[in-house]
Amino acid sequence: MSDRVKLVWFVPREALADTRDAVFAAGAGRIGDYERCSWYAAGTGTFLGGESTDPSVGQPGREERVAELRVETIVPSALVSDVVAALKDAHPYEEPAYDLYPLLDG
């Protein structure tokens, strides 16, 4: 196992810079002597919020389709909690979708 993980999150284009800035400030995105390393691609996210939700896009009880970006970066394992907290604080969604993947040394 590696001492790094890959963080993947999904965000509307207008919040890309804010979320990237937040995770990078918390210590993500460093590969060797490079900083702010990430990759992103466009796609469509879907969700249906329950009646008690307060979605930043759409309405509770109605399925929504949103143009989003899938963003990937590297995070040192020791900083995962701080980086995820920074992502959640910067993200416009009530419940940001993100994944953490363990990496193997090659």
Distance between the termini: 9 Å
- What is the CA-atom radius of gyration, in angstroms? 15 Å
- Could you estimate the helical fraction of the residues in percent? 10-25%
Q: Outline, from the CA principal axes?
A: elongated
Low-confidence stretches: none
Q: How many strands appear in the DSSP assignment?
A: 4
H/E element order: EHEEHE
Total helical elements: 2
> Helices and strands: which structural class?
alpha+beta
Widest β-sheet, arrangement of strands: 2-3-1-4
How would you state the average pLDDT, rounded?
95
Portion of residues in beta strands equals 25-35%
Biggest β-sheet strands, sense, barrel:
4 strands, antiparallel
Topology:
Layout: E1 4-11, H1 16-25, E2 39-48, E3 63-76, H2 80-90, E4 98-102
Antiparallel strand pairs: 1-3, 1-4, 2-3
Helix pairs in contact: 1-2
Structural features, described:
There is one protein chain. Helices cover 20% and strands 35% of the residues. It is of the alpha+beta class. Strands 2-3-1-4 form a four-stranded antiparallel sheet, with no helix packed on it. It is elongated, with a radius of gyration of 15 Å.
